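Quick one: Cyclic pyranopterin monophosphate synthase from Brevundimonas goettingensis, structure tokens please.
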Amino acid sequence: MPDEPSRLTHIDADGRARMVDVSDKAETAREATARGRIVMAPETLALALSGEGKKGDVRAVAEIAGLMAAKRTSDLIPMCHPLMLTSVKVRVEPTADETGLEVVATVRTKGQTGVEMEALTAASVALLTLYDMLKAADRGMVIEQVALLAKSGGASGDWTRA
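--- reply ---
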């Protein structure tokens, strides 16, 4: 262990994992947006966009899965605070280059800690749901570029990916 305390927020002075104490933080409006994409064969994309596959409208199911995942983030990510989310929006649209689908998830709360993990979880689970529902047509799909796009609120202020 280094002599100075870790800069990692989930590690205490003794080097042990802990859940961060947010009780002294002010409640503020917080928002985070995350994005990811799944690259697939043109035929698979056409199937996904048609909404008429054997499993129905895979984009609608993925959007619901992402929304549900955001609400369960604290059950999935160790030491993540359970939050009362005020809004979750998950959208699945074709990528600009038409090589697959892009998921964008935006999560809001009014609380003492941010919602970055909820947005990233929503996007990731929506992408995994798309893979699951389309894998019979295309096992070569690739999930990529899952990243936080922006966050606002809280003591650390606003941040936007350049």
